[in-house]
Amino acid sequence: MQYQADVTIELKAGMLDPEGTTIKRALEHLGYETDSVRTAKKYTITLEAESIHDARENVEEMCQKLIANPIIHNYAISLRETE
Amino acid sequence: MSIAIVQFGGSNCDLDVLHVLKDVVGVDAELVWYKEENLDRFDGIVIPGGFSYGDYLRAGAIAARTPIMNSVKKQAEAGKPVIGICNGFQVLTESGLLDGALTTNNYPKFRCESTFLRVETTDTPFTSAFRKGDILSIPIAHMEGNFYADEPTLARMEDNSQVAFRYVDKNGKVTDEVNPNGSQENIAGIVSTQKNVLGMMPHPERASEDVLGSSDGLKIFKSMAEYISGR
């Protein structure tokens, strides 16, 4: 089966997000008030797996080994079957 | 004695380090491509600065997972001195050879300027030629040099004298104004628990000859060479 995983990586709460802060400031210049702006990165990965469980395990491992840095990041995986 | 200088796609300070080691310090050094899996013949390793793999994903993340890093780990475990400069520091934290992580500068700007560093410990293969508290002038050039580690890790590093350099003013005082990237406790360089792996954001190879405005970085490479000779 083919699956699509949307992996979202974000800085842990409490960590400074200079990119988010800069965007917040730019929004203020445009007249928008926000409480905060935080950035995240999304990676879309398609993969073959026997089951959704296997696909999740696989992507989980990818996150731990490369895609996220557990010292500074949290990640979330959203999976769906594509065929 | 021979020192390996690791080259990844995107390394760009490799030739500067080669020049300093061969022509200024006067030791044998060799460029080694990232596909190399055996570094047994070398006595020390330098991971130079640059933008390995375009800093895609995160600075240093992809380089940290290349074949050569397994052999760098093996050599580090054998006690050989390993120094990572700038992107090399990022590679060493990403590969788990050093604690913590390097994130975007608190003011998100590429900073390329001269900084003052204070030598925090002389009990490493890279700082033995200094005196504790020496002030060095060594430039930085980075966008992601903001050192982060959680509180227990920082406390352990402090207890074990693992902070090698801090950003200070010209009188040696630690202030927020002279912290170029928001690093915790003005940390500019750290060593591993065994002290034989150093990561630093400033570029000592750019301060190794008087003609460059400072030769304060030279002693780092000289200390490393002396350590190897004495091993």
From TrEMBL, chain A:
The alphabetized UniProt keywords are: ATP-binding, Cytoplasm, Ligase, Nucleotide-binding, Purine biosynthesis
Principal EC category: ligase
| One term of GO molecular function | ATP binding
Might you give the EC number(s) for this enzyme? 6.3.5.3
Q: Which domain of life is it from?
A: Archaea
Q: In which pathway does it act?
A: Purine metabolism; IMP biosynthesis via de novo pathway; 5-amino-1-(5-phospho-D-ribosyl)imidazole from N(2)-formyl-N(1)-(5-phospho-D-ribosyl)glycinamide: step 1/2
Q: Is Translocase included in the keywords of this UniProt record?
A: no
Example GO CC term: the record gives:
cytoplasm
Family membership, please give it.
Belongs to the PurS family.
Assembly state and interactors? Part of the FGAM synthase complex composed of 1 PurL, 1 PurQ and 2 PurS subunits.
- HAMAP family for this protein: PurS
Its protein name is Phosphoribosylformylglycinamidine synthase subunit PurS
Q: Which organism is it from?
A: Methanolobus zinderi
* Gene label: purS
UniProtKB/TrEMBL annotation, chain B:
What domain of life is recorded for the organism? Answer: Archaea
**Localization terms from the record:** Cytoplasm
Q: In which pathway does it act?
A: Purine metabolism; IMP biosynthesis via de novo pathway; 5-amino-1-(5-phospho-D-ribosyl)imidazole from N(2)-formyl-N(1)-(5-phospho-D-ribosyl)glycinamide: step 1/2
Tell me what reaction this enzyme catalyses.
L-glutamine + H2O = L-glutamate + NH4(+); N(2)-formyl-N(1)-(5-phospho-beta-D-ribosyl)glycinamide + L-glutamine + ATP + H2O = 2-formamido-N(1)-(5-O-phospho-beta-D-ribosyl)acetamidine + L-glutamate + ADP + phosphate + H(+)
Keywords attached to this Swiss-Prot or TrEMBL record, sorted alphabetically, are: ATP-binding, Cytoplasm, Glutamine amidotransferase, Hydrolase, Ligase, Nucleotide-binding, Purine biosynthesis
Q: Which Pfam families match?
A: GATase_5
E.C. number, please?
Answer: 6.3.5.3, 3.5.1.2
- Write down the CDD domains for this protein, in alphabetical order: GATase1_FGAR_AT
GO BP term, pick one? 'de novo' IMP biosynthetic process
Give one GO term, molecular function aspect: ATP binding
Please provide, in alphabetical order, the Gene Ontology terms of the cellular component aspect for this entry.
cytoplasm
Where does the record place the catalytic residues? 86, 203, 205
Quote the InterPro entries the UniProt record gives: Class_I_gatase-like, PRibForGlyAmidine_synth_PurQ
Where does the protein principally reside? cytoplasm
Function as written in the Swiss-Prot or TrEMBL entry: Part of the phosphoribosylformylglycinamidine synthase complex involved in the purines biosynthetic pathway. Catalyzes the ATP-dependent conversion of formylglycinamide ribonucleotide (FGAR) and glutamine to yield formylglycinamidine ribonucleotide (FGAM) and glutamate. The FGAM synthase complex is composed of three subunits. PurQ produces an ammonia molecule by converting glutamine to glutamate. PurL transfers the ammonia molecule to FGAR to form FGAM in an ATP-dependent manner.
Q: How does it assemble?
A: Part of the FGAM synthase complex composed of 1 PurL, 1 PurQ and 2 PurS subunits.
The protein's name is Phosphoribosylformylglycinamidine synthase subunit PurQ
The organism named in the record is Methanolobus zinderi
